[in-house]
Design brief:
This protein is an alpha/beta fold. It contains 15 helices and 20 strands. The protein has an eight-stranded mixed sheet, sandwiched between helices. A hairpin with an 8-residue loop joins strand 4 and strand 5. Helix 5 packs antiparallel against helix 9 and helix 8 runs antiparallel to helix 10.
Length: about 500
């Protein structure tokens, strides 16, 4: 889909979208159109329940005196509440509403609004960004789509004064969207297509953006002593991989920040086999790794002025004659031993070695890991928030604020000695599960034993990596959750020597 930003010139065809403030107040272009249509817009407002509240829509078809085929009035609420997210959602919603309508082009007017929390350039760029995020589809395997089931919209044009400045703002946002799309693609791929080696190959494509990519095979990981990660994958015919991605956007002396992702490309549960119904969804158990890969693409694409490390542990958890068994004891790279009580608690084993390797080799300012780690987090938080666990209040606060800015919200849960004791073990240093109670917390406590006191946060994204119901800028399926939030974290606090 072609997305452009240009100077205001009302179209002679297609759909035209205008913003309306709460109370039904038309902005400058709306007033112009109302006059040209001899009051058709204001009459439509008066004859409806449309008040200009955020999320409301009123569609006027073929209004007289206006070149556009239809005018969509989008409620944007009170001026003082208008921010980037408002603009993104307006554009995303109008694209979703019109995608299959037969309309080929959408023009979105960005009128200046006094008192809004976003300037004209960023407002226009945010509209284009919202349309871009909402345009995502994963149709590559659908060979018999009817023409009527395919989107009709081929172009979105944002109309704004000072369009050159808006296009400059959008360039970076477009790079972030590309990272989000890469994550959505990876999460959506079936496991016969996306497995450790093929995902590592996808990571290598980032080299064209300047990302240095290194892939560790099983032999190299065995030499490093990564018995926790390797134990998970030993039941699969697919070789496990550890991928290291490095973006050098700041000076050589600037310590990097690090992001680590769980990449279980398919999770049967291993010998502790999952129930059959719903197992097909375990293709997205690599959502944490997918987010890290997409983040690296976003940061490199917009030339972020930061040094960033991305590490993903890629395995397939399968039950064959060589598979890890309940009762096995493995030795992690840290030297700590783990008794395996349940082979379906595998993601924490992958992360244990990936986290230890990252802190040991790169000495980062902080580490953030992402993982579709526990079903328990969905019971706790549903699909609205990701679980946040951290040993550092400052990092926790930065993540929460970044999440609020991009509508990828988190909720902090506790880490205490009382919970940590639940994973103590009589015959090894620890066991890989702590029992039914507080399952998400004990999983996080397990991970904390591998961060070696580096500032760290764990994001349990089991409830947010996939969506059965879409949002304005997030279609159903793989969400790409985490890319936007972590990009904002870096942009807000860790670029240019911050």
């Amino acid at each position: 889909m072609k997305i452009t930003i240009s100077e205001p010139k009302l179209p002679n065809s297609g759909a035209l979208v205008i913003g309306v403030l709460k109370g039904g107040t038309l902005l400058s272009t709306g007033k112009q159109l109302d006059k040209a249509s001899k009051g058709a817009l204001s009459k439509a407002i008066k004859g409806s329940r449309f008040t200009g509240g955020r999320g409301q829509w009123l569609d006027v078809i073929a209004p007289a005196g206006i070149g556009a085929d239809r005018v969509l009035m989008a409620g944007i609420g009170e001026a003082k509440t208008i921010k980037r997210e408002t603009m993104e959602n307006v554009a995303g919603s109008d694209l979703q509403r019109l995608a299959g309508s037969g309309v080929k082009t959408i023009s979105i007017v960005c009128d200046p609004v006094k008192g809004a929390k976003v300037d004209a350039a960023l407002g226009a760029a945010s509209l284009a960004y919202g349309a871009r995020l909402a345009s995502y589809r994963f149709d590559k395997y659908r060979t018999k789509l009817k023409a009527t089931d395919k989107p009709s919209v081929t172009a979105v044009n944002v109309l704004a004064k000072g369009s050159a400045a808006a296009r400059k703002e959008f360039k970076s946002l477009d790079a972030i969207a590309s990272g989000v799309f890469m994550t959505r693609d990876l999460v959506s791929e079936p496991a016969n297509v996306l497995y450790p080696e093929s995902m590592a190959k996808e990571c290598r494509t980032l080299a064209k953006l300047g990302v240095k990519v290194e892939v560790l095979n099983e032999a190299r990981m065995a030499k490093l002593g990564m018995g926790a990660l390797l134990g998970v994958g030993q039941g699969s015919r697919r070789e496990s991989q550890l991928v290291v991605m490095r973006w050098q956007g700041a000076g050589a002396r600037t310590k990097p920040v690090a992001f680590v992702g769980k990449g279980v490309t398919f999770d049967t549960g291993g010998i502790s086999l999952k129930p059959g119904p719903g197992m097909e969804m375990m293709k997205w158990d690599m959502g944490g790794a997918g987010a890290v890969v997409g983040l690296m693409k976003a940061l490199a694409g917009r030339k972020a002025k930061a040094n960033v490390i991305g590490v993903v542990g890629l395995v397939e958890n399968m039950p064959d004659g060589n598979a890890q068994r309940p009762g096995d004891i493995v030795t992690s790279m840290s030297g700590q031993t783990i008794e395996i009580l349940n082979t379906d608690a595998e993601g924490r084993l992958v992360l244990a070695d990936a986290l230890w390797y990252t802190q040991d080799r790169f000495k980062p300012q902080f580490m953030v890991n992402l993982a579709t780690l526990t079903g328990a987090i969905i019971i706790s938080l549903g699909h609205e928030h990701a679980g946040l666990f951290s040993n550092d209040d400052k990092l926790c606060r930065q993540l929460s604020e970044a999440g609020e800015e991009v509508d990828e919200k988190v909720w902090r849960l506790p880490l205490t000695d009382a919970y940590d004791k639940k994973i103590n073990c009589a015959i090894a240093d620890m066991k890989n599960i702590g029992g039914r109670d507080a399952g998400s917390i004990t999983a996080a406590q397990f991970l904390q034993r591998y961060v070696n006191k580096v500032p760290w946060a764990h994001l349990d994204i089991a409830g947010t990596a996939w969506a059965d119901k879409g949002k304005p800028t997030v279609p159903k399926g793989g969400t790409g959750w985490g890319v936007r939030m972590l990009d904002r974290l870096v942009a807000n606090h860790y670029e240019g020597g911050k």
